[in-house]
Amino acid sequence: MKILPRGFQTIVPRLRRRISLPGPASALILNAISLHPIDEETKMRMSLFKSSALLLLPAVLLTTAGVLLPARTSGGQDKPSVRLANQIDRLTDKVESKVIAWRRDFHQHPELSNREVRTSKIVAEHLKNLGLDVRTGVAHTGVVAVLRGGKPGPVVALRADMDALPVVEEVDLPFASKERTTFNGQEVGVMHACGHDTHTAMLMGVAEVLSGMRADLPGTVKFIFQPAEEGAPAGEEGGAGLMIKEGALQNPKPDAIFGLHVFPYATGTIAYHPGGAMAASDTFKIVVRGKQTHGAMPWSGVDPVVIASQIVIGLQTIISRQTDLTLSPAIISVGRLHAGVRSNIIPDSAELEGTIRAFDPGVQKSIHERIRRTAELIAQSAGARAETSIVMGNPVTYNDPKLTERMSATLRRVAGEKTAVVVPPTTTAEDFSLYEKEIPGLFFFLGGTPKSMDPAAAAANHSPRFFVDESALPLGIRAMANLAVDFLQQSK
User: Fold this and answer.
1) Active-site residues: which are they?
2) Tell me: the pLDDT tens digits for 43-54?
3) Residue 224 burial by CB count (10 A; 0-12/13-18/19+): exposed, middle or buried?
4) Domain architecture of the chain: domains with CATH
5) What is the pTM for the complete model shown?
């Protein structure tokens, strides 16, 4: 009579205890083994390899179990998720050259806030060619497109900004900007000194990638191409606030929104911060009213230039001596001081403008009060008067903690465990924060500094020497596409 060798009689019960398979599958596999008839010759051979069998059989069984059980990766992805992630990788490789070409075109032809006419036309034509539902002219030059997946599900939004800055480019590139225009009455250069050319090109690439897998998308993706993130020109409205007012987050309303920004981290890095990630940003303007006189006789007038200079110094003590920076970071910077028309005339007035950054509403309010008091009292002490106006700007960019925790696994999977990192908050600001006031959002940074360069020595955003390593762009495409797909799948 054919029987199960004694070694297998011992192995099978031990395997039942050791192999963590679901009950039905475990029973099916192990019972099949225990009932299989084995002849005496096999019995003798197997007894020689009893110890080897004990080590090898679990691996054999687990391999066999792969036929019966849903495949999972070490990151916990199920088989459909892995398939979609692989599809994103393949489609990103196909679209990479297009994205680089778009980026270089936008970089060579930058447009200031609310003037992104050429850029938005190229964006809209691409989205229409993909078969998306496209709406143009949102907040002047904004473009909103909707991609409806082949399966029902939630809605996710992806956003990119399109505007450039009034900066003369100093980077030696074959596609460097030579553009000139007028901004606030001054002739200026125009440069994508904050990387919005890359943001726009990458999101165009994401739209093509996700359109290529439309049938498998379990929900809807809304693409938001926004003008005027840097701020609308004087006397105009624009940016995220106007996009929201004109329905960018409606019909359909997204359940979450994601965005990115190139930053001087090393290429290959994705950086993010849960909660308050970027500061609130306000703008102040101070006009000092003095008394005009001849430059050779300053005692016969009241010099607003000297007074304005004293105010600039006084404002710095608000942060260094009057604000508890151990509780919350804060910044006051004066970016513009203008007075007079001739070297030998002490003018009647002087103007200065600057920015305020804060993370705490109480600190923000205190800074506003102290700016007014400092300017007014310094001016009074010299026989002048100061008129102060403060315009509330972007609120704190607040990454929803639950959403950030949930989607951080996607960022780590795409960038790598060691290169998807949590970083301290930054005092730069973003009007992406206005979308996050309406729906949960996650805004993260994409490193764009070549690995051969020390990020600490790299030119910062808004510098005329700001440079983005184009080899970073595929990671940005993959990150945004995977965030969208994973969110849709997890929210079903």
Assistant:
1) 163, 229
2) 555 554 444 444
3) buried
4) 6-68 (no CATH), 79-279+396-490 (3.40.630.10), 281-394 (3.30.70.360)
5) 0.80
